[in-house]
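Long-time lurker. I teach an intro course on protein structure, and each term I like to show students one example going from raw sequence to a predicted 3D structure in token notation. This year I'd like something fresh instead of my usual example. Would anyone be willing to generate the tokens for the chain below so I can use it in lecture? Attribution to the forum is fine with me.
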Amino acid sequence: MISLPAVAVPAGLSATRLNLMRGGYLLMGVGLAIVKWPLLPSAHVLPLYEGVTLCLLTAMSLLAFVGLRYPVKLLPLLLFESAWKLLWFAVVALPRTVTGDLDPATLGKVLLVQVDSLGVDFQLGTQMIAERVPS
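-- Reply from a regular --
Happy to contribute to a lecture. Here you go:
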């Protein structure tokens, strides 16, 4: 039987908070694995930036699975995930909404990005609060 070493809980973080972070990594990893991994064998026929995005998101899903084991060390991954979604919403979706140019394709992306980010942003907020408030 294989025995994994116990993971020390960093000072100020409860096991519950670490498990909530792991939930965010699991949500990100599984979601990307379901959507992006099947497309990877055909990445060579995709347009350049679609192929780049596919490879980037596939690598992020792999790192998200590593985050299940090391949730605090991979916190920058959760920060990156939240940052790009906030940036995209601010510079693409919001201006199109204000000007009335929100086409169905962009609206679909807005809904997908926001629903997907609920888990990640919640985990990130939990982590930031955990660092400031004693448990």
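Some talking points for your students: Residues 104-132 form the longest helix (29 residues). The radius of gyration is 17 Å.
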